[in-house]
Amino acid sequence: MDFTTVNFTEVSRAFGRRRALHRVSLRLNAGEIVALLGPNGAGKSTLLGLAATLLEPSSGAIRYDNQTARTGGSGLRRCIGLLGHDLFVYPELSAAENLAFFAGLYALDDISARVDAALERGAIAARRDDPVSSLSRGMRQRLALERAVLHDPRLVLLDEPFTGLDDAAVGALQARLATLRDAGRIVVVATHDLETIEPVADRALLLWNGRLETIERGAGSLRERYRMVGAAR
Amino acid sequence: MSFAATVWLVMRKDLRIEIRSREILYTTLFFAVACVLVFAFGFVREGRALEDASAGILWIAIAFSGTLALGRAFDRERHNETLRALMLAPVARPALYVGKLLGVLVLLAAVEIVVVPMIALMFQANLLAHAWLMSALLVAGTIGFAAVGTLFAAMLVRARSRDVLLPILLYPITIPVIIAGVRGTAALLQAEVDVPMARAWLSMLVFFDVVFITIALWVFEPVMTE
Amino acid sequence: MMNRLFAPLAMIVAAMFAYAPIMIANAPYESTMGLIQKIFYFHVPAALTFFLAAFVCGVASAMYLFGRRPSADRVALAAAELTVLLGVIVLISGPLWARKAWGIWWDWDARLTSTLVLWLTFQAYLLLRRYGGPGSDRLGAGVAIFGMCNVPFVYWSVEFWRTLHPKTSVLPTLQPGMRGPFWFCVVAFVGLFVVLLAARTRLEERRAELEQLYLAVEGE
Fold first, then answer.
1. Beta carbons of B87 and A54 less than 8 Å apart
2. Consecutive 10-residue runs of chain B (226 residues): their mean pLDDT?
3. pTM recorded for the entire structure
4. CATH of domain A1-79+155-233
5. ipTM value
6. Of C211, C214, C219, the CB nearest to A22
7. Which helix (H) or strand (E) holds B132?
8. Domain boundaries defined on chain A
């Protein structure tokens, strides 16, 4: 079921003895782009996984308006899209077949039109029938992105979406994120690429050793402010 | 997305991938044949197999090659973490299980279509005499084995030591299937064919299938969520 | 509650095991097998408790999987270890008995073979929990549920498979004089199971507390 806010309340997640997230509280609202920053191993992927309902918190609660992952069930999952660190596409199938499969799984109507549109937007229409394993890294990344948002989800979670993209594609993606935001979507982008995300992000969160900090707006570039907050830790 | 539609979609996707490369099919088939040969050398003396050996060899070949096929089928879902993408989709999770199960069954059926006549030939075992009953035994037995195997293979996708853990977990649980399959088949191969006996083993297999598929459907979602 | 009952219960069980040999020695001789048969007073109660332990493991696993209670998982792990332990007792005492009574170590007797298969299942459970990496508690719970539900199937299939071969072992019918020691030993074994289960579960609870402390420290 659709929602407009996502609330993390004191969410922790441990894997055995390793704590990935430590009492993270945050609120995401419709119509914003949030940059999720932090060094490797800080817990960004874990946070995205929790938001996507793929992981359950060890403690704390995640609410989508009034729903939880359990109460929302498959209706909730329909409104969430995730671009993971691994691409979530089948290398043996073609780009078109992958998109058609997921469109079917998400019970979308007019599948072939949607698939065509997605291939166009991802600039992979020319190679639509080639197996994904034969596509370049950048093309696979673009396909994975299209797959993640094919069903027009409310919550768009992207883990390192700019990896492997050339300048033109980066520009297209930035414009795409802005369009999503303007359409009232909640966009969370986990990335190392501060310079690329800076022009589009509305706010920035820093994950350090599983703990969350907000990087305040202010003078200086995002990188400078990131360094300051990082140094203070 | 209805349950049946999800099942169909997942199964069709698996079969499409398999038809393209035929990798799992060929390798599993070859392995099954090699398996039969290895056991044959163990049990055939002076050109005649020991009594009942053919029934045993058939089901062992199915068990071993089935385990291999299951491992490979789920390795595919580990690539690019597509199993997570499936779990993320707004579908009934048990439908994913059934879809994958059907895909594995089709694969094993293709292997059995080759191996059964081969064994009938090599061991002069008249496996095709009571074709319906024999097929029923094969179907019920393969379903039982694959039902448990699909669940365990899915469970182990993200576990360490998954390659060796799958057979360790699967074989003890599927021993009733193997016993029933072998004894049922043997009953059909005896000098005096014992049809009631074969039917009795068949009913046990069907019962096993119903119980364990039900449990698997029930257990799939809690076990697969992290 | 378990804490207060533990010590007295442990003492009672210890006393029962101390007294058991006396009861067994005084029990009547079985006609065909003589002294050898007396191993049955430990073998069968151990087998009954083995099935009890497997059942407890399965039920606790179901409670963990569907009720998400971490305490249920600890009980399941402890019960699985006891299943394996009791299984070893059964699988050693059985062949010893068979060897002395009928001259062969292993004759594929239905009960012993079923025990072996179940023993393998729960040993595999322990291997999974040990080597499966993080998340193997949930996976193990699934295996335990399957294992428990498999008990009747294993028993029927092995039993039916065995009836095709002539039986060489016959469980003696219980003469009146044997019932006393037999049930005494059953109670002793069940008591032992409960005591060890409580102790092992408590150990797991301590380990979980330790993990929490590690996590808390790491957070600093």
1. yes
2. 90 92 90 90 73 86 94 88 92 94 94 91 78 92 96 92 91 94 89 86 95 95 88
3. 0.90
4. 3.40.50.300
5. 0.89
6. C219
7. helix B131-155
8. 1-79+155-233, 87-152
